[in-house]
């Protein structure tokens, strides 16, 4: 993991360090470590039950870690002096008193946190609820409640934002709106962490991905890196895979066996099938390098795997993949 996450980023950092959370015999989160930095949307991705909500709850002081820690701006949530000014969160949009009006709900939150009422009007405007500010929350659609929850998260103008499955149950307009807002918040230099079990959603929203499975880190990578690694490789088969691997690595390619056992930049062992996945070199270049060394090729197929497929492959494999520097 990178050191010095606290310095030089205006303190807008989430750090999860060796976090473990057990519920009885269930290990919900298992020695999980990652850092989320400002200026990007980071998708926190994993199948249902992977431990995303648990991690977020510990981060927000709603649950205690069994061991390890989850920090906002270098501190545990409980020791933040004015938490709403440092971290905003949306965990459960349903958690608002139905009889309360939108403005009053936010006004109550603002007062309790030393935030002026002017800010309430500002955030209602930002989430598109200014027109229904005096309406009771009980009559709000799921999308409107979601917006209200986001308004509450933004109230203290925090540098760190955490949203648990924010697009669940929203219609396409709502999904698009949330996506654009998340991107705008990151562009303002905030640290934005959004959980989802859907790669299709994260692909369109996130710049970086922290993928977990069974409470453990599977990948900490940029979306681009993942796409390059899984989606845009070229599948190559040869009766002389080891020799071909050496040639292609020398030529600047990254080679792994088609069953996915080697890491980036490392030379794969000899897979039985002779199947390799090459990235960083196009099919044409691969053919030319092979020909120059007299190595026969049985297959050269550019892959167009989607990120969804990459995600399935990663979570099925369950092992850690290239923890990013
Ligand atoms: P995700 O958010 O990725 O869907 P969760 O963090 O909700 O995953 O759950 C991770 C694991 O921890 C699951 O096996 C879940 O059943 C278990 N779990 C979560 N919260 C509790 C709890 N309060 N009591 C017991 N088990 C829990």
UniProtKB/TrEMBL annotation:
Q: Which SUPFAM superfamilies does this one have? A: P-loop containing nucleoside triphosphate hydrolases (SSF52540)
Molecular function in Gene Ontology: ATP binding; ATP hydrolysis activity
UniProt keyword Nucleus, yes or no: no
Q: Give coiled-coil spans as residue ranges.
A: none
Q: What is this protein called?
A: ATP-binding cassette domain-containing protein
Kindly give the InterPro entries that the UniProt entry links to this protein: AAA+_ATPase (IPR003593), ABC_transporter-like_ATP-bd (IPR003439), ABC_transporter-like_CS (IPR017871), P-loop_NTPase (IPR027417)
Going by the entry's taxonomy, the superkingdom of the source organism is recorded as: Bacteria
Q: Where is the ABC transporter domain?
A: 14-239
